[in-house]
Protein backbone atom coordinates (compact mmCIF):
# COMPACT_ATOMS: atom_id res chain seq x y z
CA UNK A 1 0.00 0.00 0.00
CA UNK A 2 1.36 3.38 -0.99
CA UNK A 3 2.10 5.85 1.80
CA UNK A 4 1.64 9.59 1.38
CA UNK A 5 3.18 12.38 3.51
CA UNK A 6 0.20 14.14 5.12
CA UNK A 7 0.62 17.56 6.72
CA UNK A 8 -2.89 17.89 8.11
CA UNK A 9 -6.45 16.63 7.82
CA UNK A 10 -9.43 18.75 8.84
CA UNK A 11 -13.15 19.11 8.19
CA UNK A 12 -14.41 22.45 6.95
CA UNK A 13 -16.22 24.15 4.05
CA UNK A 14 -14.65 24.45 0.59
CA UNK A 15 -14.03 28.17 0.25
CA UNK A 16 -12.89 28.52 -3.38
CA UNK A 17 -13.87 27.76 -6.95
CA UNK A 18 -17.03 26.25 -8.35
CA UNK A 19 -17.50 23.95 -5.33
CA UNK A 20 -17.57 26.82 -2.83
CA UNK A 21 -19.78 26.01 0.14
CA UNK A 22 -19.46 22.22 -0.04
CA UNK A 23 -18.70 20.46 3.25
CA UNK A 24 -15.24 19.00 2.80
CA UNK A 25 -12.45 16.97 4.31
CA UNK A 26 -9.14 18.61 3.43
CA UNK A 27 -6.16 16.28 3.16
CA UNK A 28 -3.07 18.45 2.82
CA UNK A 29 0.02 16.67 1.51
CA UNK A 30 3.55 17.73 2.40
CA UNK A 31 6.02 18.75 -0.29
CA UNK A 32 6.07 21.47 -2.97
CA UNK A 33 8.98 22.76 -5.09
CA UNK A 34 6.95 25.33 -7.08
CA UNK A 35 7.80 28.35 -4.90
CA UNK A 36 4.82 30.70 -5.20
CA UNK A 37 5.68 34.06 -3.64
CA UNK A 38 2.18 34.54 -2.17
CA UNK A 39 1.82 30.96 -0.88
CA UNK A 40 0.01 30.83 2.47
CA UNK A 41 1.12 27.28 3.28
CA UNK A 42 4.90 27.56 2.96
CA UNK A 43 5.23 25.13 5.86
CA UNK A 44 4.30 22.37 3.38
CA UNK A 45 7.20 22.98 1.01
CA UNK A 46 9.82 20.70 2.58
CA UNK A 47 9.46 17.08 3.68
CA UNK A 48 12.00 17.23 6.50
CA UNK A 49 12.78 13.93 8.27
CA UNK A 50 13.00 15.68 11.63
CA UNK A 51 9.38 16.87 11.26
CA UNK A 52 7.94 13.39 10.79
CA UNK A 53 5.38 12.48 13.48
CA UNK A 54 2.97 9.64 14.21
CA UNK A 55 -0.10 9.22 12.02
CA UNK A 56 -2.61 10.48 14.58
CA UNK A 57 -0.70 13.74 15.08
CA UNK A 58 -1.83 15.24 11.77
CA UNK A 59 -5.58 14.62 12.14
CA UNK A 60 -7.65 17.70 13.05
CA UNK A 61 -4.61 19.61 14.31
CA UNK A 62 -2.74 22.77 13.38
CA UNK A 63 -0.56 21.98 10.37
CA UNK A 64 1.28 25.30 10.25
CA UNK A 65 4.53 23.99 11.78
CA UNK A 66 5.27 21.74 8.82
CA UNK A 67 5.05 18.39 10.56
CA UNK A 68 3.91 15.40 8.53
CA UNK A 69 3.06 11.72 8.86
CA UNK A 70 2.81 8.76 6.53
CA UNK A 71 -0.75 7.70 5.71
CA UNK A 72 -2.38 5.27 3.32
CA UNK A 73 -5.85 5.57 1.87
CA UNK A 74 -7.20 3.04 4.35
CA UNK A 75 -5.55 4.70 7.36
CA UNK A 76 -7.04 8.05 6.37
CA UNK A 77 -10.50 6.56 5.92
CA UNK A 78 -10.24 4.98 9.36
CA UNK A 79 -9.13 8.32 10.82
CA UNK A 80 -12.19 10.02 9.28
CA UNK A 81 -14.40 7.45 10.98
CA UNK A 82 -12.57 7.68 14.30
CA UNK A 83 -12.99 11.47 14.35
CA UNK A 84 -16.67 11.26 13.38
CA UNK A 85 -16.17 13.35 10.25
CA UNK A 86 -19.41 13.58 8.26
CA UNK A 87 -18.31 15.35 5.03
CA UNK A 88 -18.27 13.12 1.95
CA UNK A 89 -16.20 15.43 -0.28
CA UNK A 90 -12.41 15.09 0.01
CA UNK A 91 -10.06 17.82 -1.20
CA UNK A 92 -6.48 16.72 -1.84
CA UNK A 93 -4.32 19.81 -1.60
CA UNK A 94 -0.86 20.82 -0.50
CA UNK A 95 1.81 21.56 -0.96
CA UNK A 96 1.62 20.09 -4.42
CA UNK A 97 -0.40 16.86 -4.26
CA UNK A 98 0.51 15.82 -7.81
CA UNK A 99 4.11 15.35 -6.78
CA UNK A 100 2.70 11.91 -5.97
CA UNK A 101 0.82 9.32 -7.98
CA UNK A 102 -2.64 9.74 -6.47
CA UNK A 103 -4.24 6.81 -8.27
CA UNK A 104 -4.25 4.42 -5.33
CA UNK A 105 -5.31 7.06 -2.83
CA UNK A 106 -8.20 8.35 -4.93
CA UNK A 107 -9.29 4.80 -5.79
CA UNK A 108 -9.49 4.01 -2.07
CA UNK A 109 -11.53 7.13 -1.31
CA UNK A 110 -13.99 6.59 -4.15
CA UNK A 111 -14.43 2.91 -3.30
CA UNK A 112 -15.34 4.04 0.23
CA UNK A 113 -18.10 6.32 -1.10
CA UNK A 114 -16.36 9.68 -1.11
CA UNK A 115 -16.19 12.18 -3.95
CA UNK A 116 -12.71 13.60 -4.51
CA UNK A 117 -11.22 16.87 -5.70
CA UNK A 118 -7.55 17.61 -6.36
CA UNK A 119 -6.16 21.14 -6.16
CA UNK A 120 -2.92 21.38 -8.15
CA UNK A 121 -0.61 23.94 -9.70
CA UNK A 122 -0.57 21.99 -12.96
CA UNK A 123 3.20 21.66 -12.88
CA UNK A 124 3.19 17.87 -12.36
CA UNK A 125 1.30 15.15 -14.20
CA UNK A 126 -2.13 14.45 -12.72
CA UNK A 127 -2.50 10.75 -11.89
CA UNK A 128 -5.80 9.83 -10.27
CA UNK A 129 -9.13 8.03 -10.61
CA UNK A 130 -11.10 9.07 -13.69
CA UNK A 131 -14.00 10.47 -11.65
CA UNK A 132 -11.88 12.90 -9.60
CA UNK A 133 -12.70 16.60 -10.01
CA UNK A 134 -9.38 18.23 -10.89
CA UNK A 135 -8.89 21.91 -10.15
CA UNK A 136 -5.78 23.33 -11.80
CA UNK A 137 -4.62 26.68 -10.47
CA UNK A 138 -1.82 27.39 -12.98
CA UNK A 139 1.37 28.71 -11.43
CA UNK A 140 3.37 30.50 -14.12
CA UNK A 141 6.99 31.67 -13.84
CA UNK A 142 7.37 30.77 -10.19
CA UNK A 143 10.68 30.53 -8.34
CA UNK A 144 10.90 26.76 -8.77
CA UNK A 145 11.05 27.10 -12.56
CA UNK A 146 8.39 24.48 -13.34
CA UNK A 147 6.21 24.77 -16.44
CA UNK A 148 2.45 24.28 -16.40
CA UNK A 149 1.85 20.98 -18.20
CA UNK A 150 -0.57 20.53 -21.08
CA UNK A 151 -1.57 17.16 -19.57
CA UNK A 152 -2.75 18.88 -16.39
CA UNK A 153 -4.73 21.53 -18.29
CA UNK A 154 -6.38 18.92 -20.50
CA UNK A 155 -7.28 16.76 -17.47
CA UNK A 156 -8.65 19.72 -15.53
CA UNK A 157 -12.36 20.00 -14.87
CA UNK A 158 -11.81 23.47 -13.49
CA UNK A 159 -9.10 26.05 -14.16
CA UNK A 160 -8.89 28.51 -11.28
CA UNK A 161 -6.33 31.22 -12.03
CA UNK A 162 -4.97 33.61 -9.38
CA UNK A 163 -4.70 37.14 -10.76
CA UNK A 164 -3.56 40.59 -9.69
CA UNK A 165 -2.91 42.38 -13.00
CA UNK A 166 -3.63 42.19 -16.73
CA UNK A 167 -0.36 40.27 -17.11
CA UNK A 168 -1.95 37.32 -15.32
CA UNK A 169 -4.88 37.34 -17.75
CA UNK A 170 -2.42 37.31 -20.64
CA UNK A 171 -0.59 34.37 -19.06
CA UNK A 172 -3.83 32.42 -18.78
CA UNK A 173 -4.75 33.19 -22.39
CA UNK A 174 -1.36 31.90 -23.52
CA UNK A 175 -1.78 28.69 -21.51
CA UNK A 176 -5.25 28.02 -22.91
CA UNK A 177 -4.45 28.96 -26.50
CA UNK A 178 -4.22 25.34 -27.70
CA UNK A 179 -6.47 23.76 -25.05
CA UNK A 180 -10.07 22.77 -25.72
CA UNK A 181 -11.87 24.35 -22.76
CA UNK A 182 -15.30 23.03 -23.74
CA UNK A 183 -16.99 21.79 -20.60
CA UNK A 184 -14.34 23.22 -18.29
CA UNK A 185 -15.14 25.77 -15.60
CA UNK A 186 -12.79 28.76 -15.71
CA UNK A 187 -12.51 30.85 -12.56
CA UNK A 188 -10.50 33.97 -11.81
CA UNK A 189 -9.37 34.39 -8.21
CA UNK A 190 -8.08 37.77 -7.02
CA UNK A 191 -4.77 37.38 -5.19
CA UNK A 192 -5.20 38.32 -1.51
CA UNK A 193 -8.63 39.82 -2.24
CA UNK A 194 -7.05 43.13 -3.15
CA UNK A 195 -9.62 45.65 -4.49
CA UNK A 196 -7.92 46.28 -7.86
CA UNK A 197 -7.45 42.58 -8.47
CA UNK A 198 -11.05 41.87 -7.52
CA UNK A 199 -12.36 44.58 -9.83
CA UNK A 200 -10.26 43.28 -12.72
CA UNK A 201 -11.41 39.71 -12.11
CA UNK A 202 -15.06 40.76 -12.10
CA UNK A 203 -14.71 42.74 -15.33
CA UNK A 204 -13.05 39.85 -17.17
CA UNK A 205 -15.49 37.27 -15.81
CA UNK A 206 -18.44 39.34 -17.00
CA UNK A 207 -16.87 39.94 -20.43
CA UNK A 208 -16.02 36.27 -20.98
CA UNK A 209 -18.77 34.51 -19.02
CA UNK A 210 -16.21 33.05 -16.65
CA UNK A 211 -16.68 32.60 -12.93
CA UNK A 212 -15.36 34.71 -10.04
CA UNK A 213 -13.72 32.75 -7.23
CA UNK A 214 -13.45 34.54 -3.90
CA UNK A 215 -11.56 32.95 -1.01
CA UNK A 216 -14.64 32.95 1.19
CA UNK A 217 -12.90 30.97 3.95
CA UNK A 218 -10.68 33.99 4.59
CA UNK A 219 -13.70 36.24 5.04
CA UNK A 220 -15.30 33.63 7.31
CA UNK A 221 -12.03 33.20 9.24
CA UNK A 222 -12.04 29.42 8.85
CA UNK A 223 -9.45 26.96 7.50
Distance between the termini: 30 Å
What characteristic shape results from the CA principal axes? Answer: globular
**Discrete helix count:** 6
Order of helices and strands: EEEHEHEEHEHEHEH
Secondary-structure class:
alpha/beta
Strand elements, count: 9
Q: What is the makeup of the main sheet?
A: 9 strands, mixed
Q: Gyration radius, to the nearest Å?
A: 17 Å
Notes on the structure:
By secondary structure, this protein is of the alpha/beta class. It is 25% helix and 22% strand. The chain contains 6 helices and 9 strands. The radius of gyration is 17 Å and the shape is globular. This is 7-carboxy-7-deazaguanine synthase. Substrate binds at residues 13-15, 28, 93. Residues 19-223 form the Radical SAM core domain.
Brief summary of the model shown:
It is built from six helices and nine strands; from the N terminus they run βββαβαββαβαβαβα.
Amino acid sequence: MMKYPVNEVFQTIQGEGSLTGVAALFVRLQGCPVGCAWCDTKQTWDVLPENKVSAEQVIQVDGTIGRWADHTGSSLIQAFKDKGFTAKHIVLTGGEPCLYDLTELTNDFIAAGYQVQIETSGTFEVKCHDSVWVTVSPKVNMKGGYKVLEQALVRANEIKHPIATEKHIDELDALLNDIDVTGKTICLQPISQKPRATQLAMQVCIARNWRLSIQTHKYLNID
